[in-house]
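Quiz preparation item.
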């Protein structure tokens, strides 16, 4: 993911298994996740 690749289903499932606590402690990561979710909902793509 860091190398600029696409967001795959393995990233999504890994994020779910890691839990929400990982993202609430890291503000830049939380902003990135929220931005990705919002743009996916608006434009339908990642």
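Solution:
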């Amino acid at each position: 993911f860091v190398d600029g690749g696409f967001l795959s289903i393995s990233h999504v499932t890994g994020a779910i298994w890691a839990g929400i606590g990982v993202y609430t402690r890291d503000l830049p990561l939380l902003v990135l996740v929220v931005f990705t979710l919002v743009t996916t909902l608006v434009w339908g793509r990642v």
